[in-house]
Design brief:
The protein is an all-alpha fold and about 80 residues long. It is built from four helices and no strands. The longest helix is centred in the C-terminal third of the chain and has 29 residues. About 10% of the residues have low confidence.
């Protein structure tokens, strides 16, 4: 199946569109809910099931997070 729906996203968009017809962002919620494909679901299932991959990625993410945090602090302290 090449086309599936994200029912929560579509419902959220429809409700907000009915409440406020001028709200353009609700149309994007509906569109994003309709774009989910079976490839996206398969990739999420793979990432969730692959424990070795997740433990390998987590240290990199925490390292990058601390790197960007220290970079932001150094930029902030220079401006003050």
């Amino acid at each position: 199946m090449l086309f599936t729906t994200n029912l929560i996203g579509v419902t959220k968009g429809i409700i907000s569109l009915l409440q406020n017809p001028g709200n353009i962002l609700s149309v994007y919620d509906i569109e994003d809910g309709l774009k989910e494909s079976w490839l996206q679901r398969l990739s999420w299932q793979y990432v969730k099931s692959d424990r070795e991959h997740l433990t390998f990625v987590t240290p990199k993410l925490s390292f990058m997070s601390s790197y960007f945090e220290s970079l932001a602090r150094s930029k902030f302290h220079r401006q003050v």
